[in-house]
Every structure is written in structure tokens, then in C-alpha cells.
Amino acid sequence: MGERRRPAGFGQLWQAFDEARFAGRILNLRASLPTADEAARRAEAWLREQQVAGSGEVLIITGRGNQSEGGVSPVREAVIRVLHSLRRRGVVASHAEHTPGSFAVTLAPMQALLEAPRRRREKAPPPRVAPESLDALDDETRLLLRNLAERVLESLGVGDRDPFLHGEMLRQFGTLAGTLPRGLTGRDREVALKRALRRALDEYE
Length: 205
Known about the structure:
The chain is an alpha+beta fold. It has 2 domains: 17-108, 2-Layer Sandwich (Ribosomal Protein S8, Chain: A, domain 1); 113-203, no CATH class. Helices cover 49% and strands 11% of the residues. A 4-stranded mixed sheet has the order 1-2-4-3, covered by helices on one side. α2 runs parallel beside α3 (74-88).
């Protein structure tokens, strides 16, 4: 018996369902034909931004790799590695193959990101802004950052938090700075940082 054929227009119908389910939360890597390294960088940055935005569930389209050597997509393999890495770092909660050319990804709450243990085998990316720049933040941003550091230390069972507070503020600043969209500068960047801080604090309420 031959392979059962999908009805004409099935692909368009499936796409319509995806657009409804993942409205505004789709990264289509297949459309721009990136290299594997480019795809990995774009996927990681996008997933981090989506986590801060509270997206919950997102879709990454990699393509099947039918035209790739050996029928294996380097982009797909690179994205799989990113997904596993970000799961260990508290960004991704789970992922599953949605179609042979896409992945449905459930993002972890920001609390998981902020409390993720440092791993020796995973070299953490350096903060995009030097720690000394905390002095350049306005009073409201520093207060939000302090409150978040206190909440994280409290959740980790730290009793006397004062000796660790400044270091935790720097760590959380570095973590959140890495989730902000690239290209933001000055006031726009600080506004985005405040938004990320408030969303994180909301999870500790």
C-alpha cells in the first residue's frame, strides 16, 4: 500500500494553526538560510528575550534539511544543542519536535533563570555592561535590582543576606543584561531592564 497523501492545502492549514497557537512567537530560521553558528546565536538571543517577555510557549522553525549533506540540517542540530544548553541554564523548561522541521519550546519562568546554578562546563557569557556601570543606573533601577537580589537570596535560604547582596546584584544585572534585545542603548535599554526586573519580581510575589 502506497504512502497516504495529505490533502491539498494541508500545509497551509497547518501553518494557519501554528500562527494562531504561536501568534507573534515564531522564529523562522529556515526563511533566512543562516549558517549553523548564526542560527545558534539568533536562537539563543531570541529565546532569552522571549523568556523575559513571558511568552511561555514558542516555535522555532529550522527546516528539515532535505537539501543538506546527508539529509541532516546543520541548523537543526545547532538549535538542538542550544535548547539543551539553555535548559541547563534555566531558560528552557522543555522542547519537543513539532514537525520534522520545527520545535515547540516551553520557556522556564524567570525564577529558574535567576536561580540557575553556575556550571563549570558551561562558560557563562560575560555581562554586556561592566559591573561598574551599576552606578550609572537611576535610583529606581538600582532599587529594583536590590529587591530582586534580596528575593533570590531569600529563596535560596540565605539568612544573613547583607554580605552577599552586592555580589548578587551584580550577578542578576549580568544575567538580565544578557536577555535584553540587542541594539538598545541609553534610556531605551534601562527601560527594558526595568521591565525585566519587574517581571522577575512579580514571580517572587
